Amino acid sequence: MFKKKPQVKAAAPLRSSDRRRLADQVIDDYQLEEPTASNATPEVKAEATTAHTSLRNSLLPDNLQSARFTTTHGPELKKASGTVYIGSHDSEEARILWFQIEGRMYPSVYTLWRHPDIVPLLHTPDIVIKKLQGGADLMTPGLAGGPPFPARAKKGAVAAIASLERPSVPVAVGVCEIDVSALGRVQGARGHAVESMHWAGDELWSYSPSERPGKAPPEEIEGWAKVLDGSGLAQETEELRNDDGEEDGGVPLGSNNNGHSAEGQANGEHAAAGNPEDAETTPERTADAPEMTQKEIDDAFRNAFLYGVYHYKQNQPNAPNYGLVYPLSQSFVMSNLTQPFLPAFTPEQSQQLQIKKTSWKNIKKFIKHMDKQEKLVKSKEKDGHETVIMDINFTDAAIKDFKPYRLPKKETMAGTALGRGEKATEAIDTGDDAVGRKLQVVSYFKPTAKLQPLFSAGNTASKQQLFTPPEVRELVTAYIERENLASEINKRLVKLNPTLGNAVFDGTGSLDKEVLAKGSVPRDALIDRVLKAMAPAYAIVRNGTDPSTSKAKSGAPPKIHITLETRSGSKTVTKVSGLETYHINPRPLAEELRKVCAGATSVEPLAGAAKKTEREVMEVMVQGPQKDAVVKALERRGVQARWVEVLDKTKKGKGR
How far from chain centre, in Å, is Cα 299? Predict the structure, then answer.
């Protein structure tokens, strides 16, 4: 519905009474709490009232604003109007949390990410998700993970949709057009299952009062994962991914009995409502494509895995475990260490290079083979249904002596293809003008009122407000000569006069008394003390620009901060902040790190780093311990190591 940008009027704060009424409507419509018994004790009723108020505030925060909108939807471009509700939690960025059409409230993906299990969650392969994000409806053959399907997924019910790749992360919202919970099978079925209303990537998702782009879906949502575990759906979706070879490995969706692909069935964008046959497509096949042998397919997957490990070893040589964070899930092994390095140059080769066409049939057995037969990895069963890699033998000859081969340039789950031979990272083009430039930090010093006589030499230099260290030395030397303060016995000693005694050696320093008692001080010590008594300033100059044309800022030059910390138990993330001072755009940097590190990145405002009247300070976050990759990316932008400060919170001895 929100594929095209809607017309949104100015937002206005919602009255407290209206917000409470609306929250109660949502709680009632979605049956989010159990009714309190009439004979309950006062204590129980009080607890229920407190919980109800908390639920209200969680669903619709007290900073909620509303705005009317109009848009068009469907093949006939029917006009639709309604209300969007904009708010934020815990000082987060304001987003559309709910939208209302014809009196019915629908949650946005931002609300689903924060409130697990408020609607039934359906699953579909990742290739179908891409169709949904183009505005298509979910067709019945595109349903995965059942039957049985969630009991609440009945006709007319609001439902969320997630991909098999990230089953705990809803990325679309729609309305069930059929009783999905009653389906006995989906293979061979026809028709629409869910009408798409909103998805991550549409105009509603990207709407922001501050005009910032929409937030990327998280890698996992713990609350939804627990819901899936409790219902047994987590194991079913994982088994489905394993049995089908995972879409990461280039697996097409299984065809139904009529020979129509699930992708075609899901493509409701090209079908008129109520005419599902128009949505069906038949995948093109090339009859003359040479068939690969079983051994060739097996060798291609084995070599792709070796290439993936080799890639990490070559490009992150100083990172712990070469940038890999154990345990490595089956999904990670396929999407980051195998699939990007498969030599699939044509659609026909992609059709043949599928994990289910190997002798192992799925990624789980492939990992076990690399452990038991190849001795390249150490694996372990996790939760009874997944095999994870606990360690990789980087010293094995197969990895040490690996020779990179040519790879196609194609898009992968982690971004642009990682496999580009020995130039895997250097060849990445982020379109960032900061790459390849030179930076220079110029330090300045401003004299205080007490020191002003030292700089009143009567020449043009004395009229300056800021001085570089060489200029300070030159002016102090000129003052010494003008006042005839050089010692007759030793020219390196300077005799003190009342100005130097009061302005420089005022008794606050540890050696002041000794210097004042002697009545003289070494020339270098005097200049050093003058610099310390002055107010510091700095300017950061790009590509050899004249420093005088750059506006100086007060204080010492700040550093770029790289922080490694642990989240969600054992997961490590790397944060980078302070980029703006060095004229670095955080978003192109995050995009480069996403490709280099083959992991998710995000760019968010750094809480408390800027005042309301100042420009926001942004923070880049990268999954995994990626310090070396970040430092290398900064060096490409002219940042020297001495301008960077690293804080490792994952170790007892913090800092660097």
Answer: 34
Where does 557-648 sit in CATH, by number?
Answer: 3.30.780.10
Give me the pLDDT at residue 237, please: 57
Choose the CATH number for 7-216 among 3.30.70.20, 3.10.400.20, 3.40.50.11010, 1.10.230.10: 3.10.400.20
Residues in the chain: 656
> Which residue, among 73, 168, 104, has the nearest Cα to 85 in the 3D structure?
104
Token pair for 19: 């917000």
State pTM to two decimals: 0.43
Token digits of residue 36: 């309190």
Assess whether the previous peptide bond of 340 is cis (omega < 30° from 0).
no
Q: What letter would DSSP give residue 394?
A: T
Per the CB < 8 A criterion, the answer to whether 251 and 297 are in contact is no
CATH of domain 448-533: 1.10.245.10
pLDDT band of 437, cuts 50, 70, 90: confident
Distance CA 544, CA 548 (A): 11
Q: What is the pLDDT of residues 335-365, one digit of tens each?
A: 788 888 898 877 778 778 888 889 998 898 9
The tokens describing 220, both together, are 């996992």
User: pLDDT category, 334, cuts 50, 70, 90?
Assistant: confident
In DSSP notation, 470-494 reads HHHHHHHHHHHHHTT-B-SS-TTEE
Q: Domain boundaries in the chain?
A: 7-216, 294-416, 448-533, 557-648
Nearest-angstrom CA–CA distance, 637 and 643: 12
Amino acid making up residue 316: Q
Distance CA 650, CA 149 (A): 41
Distance CA 169, CA 248 (A): 17
Q: pLDDT band for 232, please (50, 70, 90 cuts).
A: low
Token representation of residue 17: 């009474």
323 or 178: whose pLDDT is higher? Answer: 178
624-652 pLDDT, tens digit per residue, is 888 988 999 999 889 999 999 999 988 76
User: Which 8-state DSSP code applies to residue 6?
Assistant: P
pLDDT value at 574 more than 60: yes
Going 181 to 187 to 188 to 190, the CA torsion angle's sign is positive
Rounded Cα distance, 506 and 496, in Å: 12
